[in-house]
Amino acid sequence: MRVPFSWLRDFAPFDGKPAEIAGVLDNLGLVVESIELVGEGLSDVVVGEVLGIDPIPGADRIRKVSVSTGGQPVEVVCGAWNFEVGDRVPLAQVGAVLPGGFEIARRKMKGVVSNGMLCSGRELGLSEDQQGILVLEGAPEAGTPLTEALGIEADAVFDIAVEANRPDAWSIAGVARDLAARLGLPFAIPEPRVAGVEGPSQVGGLASVEVVDFDLCPRFTARVLTGVSVGPSPSWLARRLVLAGMRPLNNVVDASNYVMLELGQPTHPYDLDKLEDGKLRVRAARPGEVIRTLDGVERHLGLKSVGPGDPLRDCVICDAHDVPVGIGGVMGGAGTEISDGTEKVLLEAAYFDPMAIARTSKRLGLRSEASARFERGCDIEGIDRASTRLIELLSTTAGGSFEVARGVIDEHGVLPKRRRLRVRVQRVNAVLGSELDGRAIEGYLEPIGFSCSVAEPGVLSVEVPSFRPDTSREIDVIEEVARHHGYANLPRRRLAVTQVGHLTRYQRERRLVAEVLAGLGAHQAWTPSLVSPRDHERARMSGPAVELANPLSPDESVLRLGLLPGMLKALAFNCDRRQADLRLFEIGKVFPPPDAERVAEALRRTGSTVVDERELLAAMFASGSDDATTAVRSWTTLAEALGIEGIEISQGEWGELHPGGAAGGSETGWALMAGLHPTRSGQLVVTSSSGRLPPGVPLGVVGEIDPEVLEAFGIAVDGQDQTRVGWLEIDMGLLLGAAERRRAVARPVSRFPSSDIDLAFVVDDKVPARSVEASLRSSGGEMLEDVWLFDVYRGSGIPAGARSLAYRLRFCAQDRTLTDEEVGLLRRSCIDAVVSAHEARLR
Amino acid sequence: MEGSVVEAESLLARCKSVADVNVVEAELIGKRSRLAEVNRELRGLPPDVRRERGRRLHEVRGRIESLLVARREELRAASRQTRLESDRIDLSEVMSFPLDRGGRPGGRMGPPAPARGHPGVVQRTRDELEDVFVGMGFIVVEGPEVETDWYNFEALNMPPAHPARGMWDTFYLRLGDPETVLLRTHTSPVQIRLMQAQRPPIYAVVPGRCYRRDTPDARHVPIFHQIEGLVIDRGISFSDLAGTIDAFTTAYFGEGIHARLRPAFFPFTEPSAEFEITCTICAGVGCRTCSQTGWIELGGCGMVDPAVLGAVGIDDEEWSGFAFGFGIDRCAQMRHGIPDMRVLLENDARFLRQL
How far is A284 from chain B (nearest CA, A)? Predict the structure, then answer.
């Protein structure tokens, strides 16, 4: 809300610099977002009378102007053409510093010395007009200070962000009340006076009001004004409106706006002659009813629900034919608005139910100055003052025959009463950590309109003023005490926490995962959790995703099913910038769609969640010669860092480790293998039965991204005939929470020398090397200290569809040096095991 | 015999390597050398002559041996010098070789070890914030990003159509009845879940991803990260809140950076405050970043509203507490001078590598 400092002074004798006042307002929670200084920088600007205008030889855009300021004429150079000899114009003299800090100096242009500058309205900060020089009306005397000629006082306008719990601060008077209380200044709202304008007629003979739905409109008052002559408002009033950010229209509408800004109570003037029989009827709109509002838009009422429990009741004001002429508390209709010919005015001043206004405003997507105030709660006791104030203003501006009909139409249902709250002194101090006594608390509350009395020792009885409908509980009053005591004046205490702060194992290990991936050369990415269905399709992720009801754009309209689409988009982004040579990883949630039952359970508020959100790790390897093997190596590094055991790669039909289930959906709830290279990828599945997960459960995938998917995302690396991108994606919850871990128990290291033997087998391509290794390990027994693959060979001497796998086995005993015979026996049994289990041949 | 010393000197002078010295050594004092022969002959000589010759022999041998040692040392030092010369490399060449661009320097540069990757700046900021609070005795709790209207709004003292809901533009999901399921607009629903699951005392921070239907600009993106704190215990007051915020501010942003609280409104806390910290750019003197005020707005906080405690069945006469929240991305932005938040979601390698 824009609050002119001068207007605040109507209510209390404020003094001091605008910046200091803004600081006080800030500390009251009336945060000043900006201060606009008005009329600043005009001190050296005077009225000049144009004496002569002469061309400058060789210049066709600027002219030499001779200006009188009462004494010796001044010569200036000017580029504007909108004035003539005899006009009065603003002259900024040499040395003047205009608003915005522009300093006027003596300058020479085309050989002519300019001793100042003629100014536009914009240059003076008085208007937006920059088309030409501001030509002053009324021939003010040359040499008069401009501020005097225009009646401008230096002023400051505070732009205040009013919080939702401060309905009172949606008015100049309300801001003044808070500010005066904090500064210890006397505050008063002058009682409006209507003297000598009461006419002979009775309001009842000119108008009538019927309120049908008091739940929507608990109080509706109307007065009738006659003999109105519609015209412009006086300049002081128009100027205040402009400073407060409103456009002056005519004296009637301006007075209504002025009162709303000043007191916070919206009113609405109707052209009474456009209302048949002067009748108004206030009721709930029928669903589908249509009205054209002041802004010329057709509004369909009572249709769209804005939330659970919305009764779809919009309040409308209707005419004698029960046709809506306005949306109560939101906006009037076009048919009864004040026009130049209006003579009689029906003045509405009412109270509308805040929740109803909030719903209607949201339903129609229509917020007005009035609805903003009504939905926060207006002062139900301030209605009469507002209409009287409006009449007071009009009595000086609406012409000589202006009259007010006697009496007020006042229709009301059950009105909210003033609240009385018990406020415990001890409670105030317990909440704030303060040591205030009852008198101090009273001292803060009384100046802002809360009247206090002692209910019993240590308990105050506090009456809440009608302009603070937000205050309904003891805690609300405590907040007022805190505000006026000053947050900065409350003590600060260091918390003594009894619990030991810690991260969970999952949280600690998640950090380790990030460290390991960074150590593998991957940068951590953050991709949007919102993607387009098209992204899922391109990544071959079929199946439904959770849809947004109100997406900002179709590109971000569903919740992601996996991290692949986002990561591919990130890679494509870098690819377009010739930096595809990259490794990336992300840890983020994915959102498998829930069934209806799960949603219903979550809506029961029992602590269950709507979606089985899964936190995944994804890593993408696109650097240099990265491919599926990089991804596998990264997985083994990660598993080693975490001490994870009992997880093997299962490549579909390739081997005995196949989990048996379909390669698509799985217990993890996300589409495993979607978008991956069919012959260069596999699932990471549990193989041991000693962990918390049964054998066969997949934890993730590892391998390479399907080349067609890369193409679909526009990823191609220059100079490579085939772009390969390694991929690793793991369910973090399963990995860290359920996978088997290496037992962290030290085994003694043998002090005796070990013996190495090399064995090479020719095995079918479809036999996983890892299962050959497993056979070697089980037949090697305790004496087999280690075994590793050191060569893979395909080519001459090896049949097609097979390869040679060469392993080195290291044998060692804890208690002795193994003899050649012993090693020979172990060698034999290892060979036999592999040959028989894998139809292998020793090479 | 004395001639051997002279001979040794000239032989050794011609040696070019330690191996040459070994050959010369064999020639001069080895088993088949003249000196060895002289030694063998000693046995047949009369004792006086033998003693005299023996002494001379010993002296000559000693002189030759020390010549050998000296020459060997000389040659070793020379060959080390040559080797070191040829080993010389310019380490700055390696420094300027762009390993992290996948450059694969050959030969002298060694194998292409991967340059270390960078953990995300948001992640790192989050970790640092968590660490400060863990040090202050808090635990770290996480919750779902897809929420129901009740957890996100209603239980936080915002009934349907409450005007305060307008503070958060919400993404709703097509699940359940219209506008019942949404993407959380803040981490605060986790407060509710936490209080449902655990009786007080509670000292927890809640980091996580949030969503608001805001058009992206330099300071806001629709997907962002927040960290929230919740304390519920007996006898907790606004003083504890102010002290905690200030302690955190100094611990995280450094000595000389403090917090101040000013009244604000949030439906789920009362009294509510927004907290500002000493401008980290100008240290409170006043600059463009802080609009000359010396302070930068960081987040919101307040005493947990009794209505919120009531929604989860906690007696607000026995227990009280405070909550606070602020943007992780905003902290990262401040700390690293990131001019535009939107770059965080682009994942441009040139940006990721910097932080």
Answer: 18
pLDDT digits (tens, 9 = 90+) for B54-98: 898 899 999 999 999 999 999 999 988 888 888 776 666 666 655
| Residues B79 and B142 occupy one common structural domain | no
Q: Domain with B297 in it: what CATH number?
A: 3.30.930.10
Domains in chain B, number: 2
> What are the chain B neighbours of A624 within 8 Å (beta carbons)?
102, 104, 112
| Contact residues, chain B, for A600 at CB < 8 Å | 176
Q: Is residue B52 part of a domain?
A: yes
Average pLDDT, chain A: 90
Instruction: Name which of B100, B128, B265 to mutate to probe chain A: the one with the most chain A Cβ atoms within 10 A of its Cβ.
Output: B265
State whether residue B68 is helix, strand or coil. Answer: helix
In a domain, B113, yes or no: no
Q: How many CB pairs under 8 A join A and B?
A: 298
Task: Give the closest residue to A539 by CA, choosing from A660, A731, A680, A670.
Answer: A670
Q: Which range of residues forms the domain containing residue B346?
A: 121-354
| Per-residue pLDDT tens over the stretch A673-686 | 788 888 888 899 99
Distance CA A648, CA A695 (A): 10
Give which of A94, A67, A69 is closest to A80, Cα–Cα: A67
Cβ neighbours of residue A196 closer than 8 Å, sequence gap 6 or more: A395
**Residue B230, beta-bridge partner list:** B204, B323
In a domain, B26, yes or no: yes
Interval A756-804: pLDDT, tens = 999 999 999 888 898 899 999 999 999 999 999 999 999 999 999 899 9
Whether residue A552 and residue B222 make contact (CB cut-off 8 A), yes or no, is yes
User: Residue B94 domain-assigned?
Assistant: no
Consecutive H or E run containing A440? helix A438-445
- Name the minimum distance, in Å, from the CA of B132 to any CA of chain A: 10
| Ordered DSSP codes for A216-282 | T-SEEEEEEEES----PPPHHHHHHHHHTT-----HHHHHHHHHHHHHS--EEEEEGGGSGGGEEEE
Given CB atoms, is B78 within the 8 Å cutoff of chain A?
Answer: no
In chain B, which residue ranges form alpha helices assigned H by DSSP?
2-14, 18-29, 34-42, 47-87, 91-96, 121-135, 149-152, 189-197, 238-253, 306-311, 328-336, 349-352
**pLDDT score of A536:** 94
From chain A, pick out residues whose CB is under 8 angstroms from the CB of B352.
523-525, 584
Domain boundary among B68, B87, B106: B87
- Look at residue A390 and tell me whether its pLDDT is greater than 70: yes
Tokens of A202: 């009775």
Is B237's CB within 8 Å of A587's CB? no
ipTM of the complex: 0.83
A31-40, A174-183, B118-127, range with the lowest pLDDT: A31-40
Helix, strand or coil for residue B106?
coil
Tell me: do B129 and B79 sit in the same domain.
Answer: no
Residue B170 CB contacts under 8 Å (≥ 6 apart), including other chains: B152, B182, B183, B185, B212, B213
Domain end call among B39, B62, B87 = B87
The verdict on B333 and B286 lying in the same domain is yes
Higher pLDDT, B111 or A808: A808
Q: Flag residues of chain B having pLDDT under 70.
A: 89-114, 161, 163, 166-167
How much of chain A, in percent, has pLDDT values that exceed 90? 67
What are the residues whose beta carbons fall under 8 Å from the beta carbon of B118, sequence distance 6 or more?
A: A518, A523, A524, B352, B353, B354, B355
Amino acid at B204: A
Model confidence at A671, in pLDDT bands (50, 70, 90)?
Answer: very low
| Secondary structure element (H or E) that encloses residue A517, with its range | helix A505-519
Whether residues A546 and B237 touch (CB distance < 8 A) is answered with no
Q: For chain A, first and last CA: distance in Å?
A: 88
CA–CA min distance A448, chain B (Å): 16
**d(Cα A52, Cα A75) in Å, to the nearest integer?**
9
> B305 with B169, same domain?
yes
